[in-house]
Amino acid sequence: MSPRLTLLFEQLPDLLGGHLTLAVPAIFIGVLISLPLGVLCVKSATIRGPVMSLVSLVQTVPSIALLAIMVALLGGTIGYLPAFIALLIYSILPIIRNTIVGLESVDPAMREAAKAVGMRPLQQLFRVELPLAFPVILAGIRTATVWVVGIATLSTPVGAPSLGNYIFSGLQLRDWQRVIFGCVATMTLSLVLDQLIAVIETSIQSRRKTSLALAMCAIVGLVAMGIVPGVLGPEAAGFSKLQEKENESEKSDSSGPLRTTLEGQVVRIGAKGFTEQFILAEILREKIEDAGGTPEVLSNMGSTIVFNALAKNTVDVYVGYTGTIWSTVLKETDPISRIAMRAAVAGRLYDEYGIVLAGAL
């Protein structure tokens, strides 16, 4: 195996874990939301119109745009939460639609027979209608699973690690082996989850409890693998909030020696989505490891997203560009000298955001 391919496989457990912890809970909660909504839509035409219109309208929003909207609605928060909410929203439509179709396809004679034997409406729903509609509903869940697993690759630009890291970094680096590896990994995961759901379907229909339990355990195991750690140019300046942590430590023990290491600290490194930033992030990673810290790199983020993440303590440090900060964050248009700009940026970032300009590279 080539060294490049070995490196890709070494990164797989962490990225696969991130992908699973995004996709599987989104699908599961999507089912919990969509099934009751689908039942209500069948029982009430008044509810059905607005619900289906709203869900269908949201579905027309491009997935990357929906992720960006979630970041904005959550006050600039990046990472897991905006990506999870966007995926949850995308999972709802196919499940609701198939729930409605499945329940409406139940033979009216079966409903009449249920009434004739004295079943109440809830008994009729759970003992007759839902079991008969189950294959159609499960087809919607399988469709939602494929959609969510695919769309989860787009969570990378908002700071949520996933298999999309391969694709986005591969596009930036023109590394097509990396892009193909990410695509194949995503397709494989989608097929595995789809087949596990298919096994659940056949097991329930044939009442094979052993295979049902095995399929459920496999899904739980995949999620657990993602949750448990370890299973799976221009002038540049470093912007950081780590200095605040060091200052607090010094205040708490002013009589002792100054702290010179990051022992026991997790340091989150932000990076934008191009080659120079990848290199700079790796340099920071090595420096932090040498100082005893535990670095985590969140890459492929846009300029505004990574700055907002720093301001909200979602990341601790990143390498930014003075000119970019001057124009995009501080909204200044007047050209000034390099030294004056750096001094002005340093002062305003500290005063307005509490961000320390660590120095020029």
Which key phrases capture this entry?
361 residues; alpha/beta; MetI-like fold; D-Maltodextrin-Binding Protein, domain 2; 2 domains; 5-stranded mixed beta sheet; 5 strands; elongated
Provide a concise account of the structure shown:
This protein is of the alpha/beta class. The protein has helices at 3-43, 45-59, 63-73, 80-104, 108-116, 121-151, 164-173, 176-206, 209-227, 242-252, 275-290, 303-311, 322-329, 338-353, and strands at residues 236-240, 266-272, 294-301, 317-321, 356-360.
Task: Characterise this structure.
With 361 residues, the chain is α/β, with parallel strands linked by helices. The chain folds into 2 domains: 3-227, MetI-like (MetI-like fold, Orthogonal Bundle), CATH 1.10.3720.10; 236-360, D-Maltodextrin-Binding Protein, domain 2 (3-Layer(aba) Sandwich). It is 70% helix and 8% strand. It has helices at residues 3-43, 45-59, 63-73, 80-104, 108-116, 121-151, 164-173, 176-206, 209-227, 242-252, 275-290, 303-311, 322-329, 338-353, and strands spanning 236-240, 266-272, 294-301, 317-321, 356-360. It has a 5-stranded mixed β-sheet, with helices on both faces.
